[in-house]
Amino acid sequence: MRKIVLSTVIAAFAAISxxxxxxxxxxxxxxxxxxxxxxxxxxxxxxxxxxxKIKVCK
Length: 58
What we know:
Layout: H1 2-24, E1 35-43, E2 49-57
Antiparallel strand pairs: 1-2
């Protein structure tokens, strides 16, 4: 039983170690992130409404 569990753990570790570098190669030099502008409403110390525009990229 112990050998089965140990071999399963080793196999899972090997699969994960190969998966990480393959995901790193997914991005190329032509990769362009998707960006959009997000508006955030805040109030200053005097109670005035301040709208901030923030660029969010994924």
